[in-house]
Design brief:
- The protein is α/β, with parallel strands linked by helices.
- The chain folds into 2 domains: 63 residues, Winged helix-like DNA-binding domain superfamily/Winged helix DNA-binding domain (Arc Repressor Mutant, subunit A, Orthogonal Bundle); 180 residues, Rossmann fold.
- The protein is built from 10 helices and 15 strands.
- The strands form 4 sheets. The protein has a 7-stranded parallel β-sheet, sandwiched between helices. Strands 1-3-2 form a 3-stranded antiparallel β-sheet. A 3-stranded antiparallel β-sheet has the order 10-11-13.
- Helix 4 crosses helix 6 and helix 8 packs parallel to helix 9.
- It is globular.
Length: 254
């Protein structure tokens, strides 16, 4: 694989997932860690990424390639997860669909149109409108990376709802499969949704495992949730115990 092609693939992965570890990049590109480090050096010098201990993330001051995000939405893993999530929605339910590419994908598979959806994602609102599904967009400040609305006003509005089901994306999952957030507002949105719902679902593909963040939802902050994923983590036995057996996985993407 040529250097330019590797760089494009790295940027595509970072556009979709915000960050990636050396291990994720070596597995994704099928190259050595030394080559990954050299490629990241070049991208960092060009101002396209920011290095951190063990990996890299997109430079927020560098434009995101929206085409990469769209291609990520259409990946097989995300489509499988989205289809499973959509199958759980029943008629006459009030649901919340969070921002993110995987939650956006599930809207294509919704068959129950007589539902009410609350969201903070602008692409989610547009997709729901195209399917003639009643949707309410929360107010807030515009967050360009995820095309979503966040802030104190968003939180205050969200606290008033009691949902039948919530479907949330996530920045990642730590070794205990606790949901992680990239910032304080995203963290608060997750916390409120998981508390104010009869049933909660986290949508995450296998690239989201074993991450770390300052914002971790500890067990006492939420009711049990169901993880919808394309692949079990390596310690699948422990994962089932952590989630009390609530785990949906598709063998199609194993």
């Amino acid at each position: 694989m040529k250097k330019t092609e590797r760089h494009n693939k790295i940027l595509m992965l970072l556009d979709m997932n915000q960050q990636a570890t050396y291990q994720e990049l070596t597995s994704y590109l099928q190259i050595s860690e030394a080559t990954v480090r050299r490629d990241l050096d070049s991208l960092e010098q060009a101002g396209q990424i920011i290095r951190f201990w063990g990996g890299a993330k997109r430079n927020p001051n560098h434009p995101i390639n929206q085409r990469n995000i769209v291609e990520g939405i259409l990946s097989k893993e995300k489509r499988v997860i989205g289809e499973i999530a959509a199958s759980l929605v029943n008629s006459h339910e009030l649901i919340f669909i969070g921002s993110g590419t995987t939650t956006l994908t599930m809207i294509d598979y919704l068959t129950a149109t007589d539902i009410m959806v609350v969201t903070n994602g602008i692409p989610q609102l547009e997709s729901l409108h195209s399917k003639k599904i009643n949707a309410f967009l929360l107010c807030g400040f515009y967050k360009s990376f995820s095309s979503s609305l966040v802030g104190r006003q968003t939180i205050e509005m969200l606290e008033k709802y009691q949902f039948d089901k919530v479907f949330l994306g996530t920045y990642g999952l730590n070794e205990n499969l606790a949901p992680l957030s990239a910032d304080e507002y995203e963290h608060e949105i997750k916390k409120i949704c998981l508390k104010n719902s009869k049933q909660s679902y986290i949508l995450a593909d296998n690239t989201k495992y074993n991450r770390s963040s300052l914002y971790v939802l500890e067990k006492e902050n939420y009711n049990n949730y169901t993880l919808i994923t394309n692949r079990l983590p390596d310690n699948s036995t422990n994962a089932a115990k952590i989630l009390n057996g609530f785990l949906i996985s598709s063998s199609d993407c194993m």
